[in-house]
Amino acid sequence: xxxxxxxxxxxxxxxxxxxxxxxxxxxxxxxxxxxxxxxxxxxxxxxxxxxxxxxxxxxxxxxxxxxxxxxxxxxxxxxxxxxxxxxxxxxxxxxxxxxxxxxxxxxxxxxxxxxxxxxxxxxxxxxxxxxxxxxxxxxxxxxxxxxxxxxxxxxxxxx
Length: 159
Description:
By secondary structure, this protein is an alpha/beta fold. It has helices at 15-25, 85-96, 121-127, 132-143, 150-158; strands at 7-11, 30-36, 49-56, 59-65, 77-82, 101-102, 107-109, 115-120. A hairpin with a 2-residue loop joins strand 3 and strand 4 (59-65).
């Protein structure tokens, strides 16, 4: 039975490629179904891949090949909590090295324009630390980064 709530992500023909990339890259991710269009539609022809059912880190998603009319924006992103620098680096580089683009503060975009926040758990804890001065130092360190450097966040937290 399908999930009651599924995130629908619009692609310009790249839904299956994107879903397969996510399934290879992120844990607890998989492509579960590929559906072809039963007839022609504005962005494609009968038999083209219309939708792809997949999960990203356990979250049910539907990729829709809707055409070029709608684009992803930073208003939606997947925030991926990482446990260490190796995992942070692996996920960040998987996205960037596959045609993506770096941004600031742990954000990046994949080649389909979808935004990702590769966020070490250490960072989340640091910027919400009860010691406001320590939290501010960690926050200020983060603001200078593209990919998050855990050692620098920990050093800022310590002062």
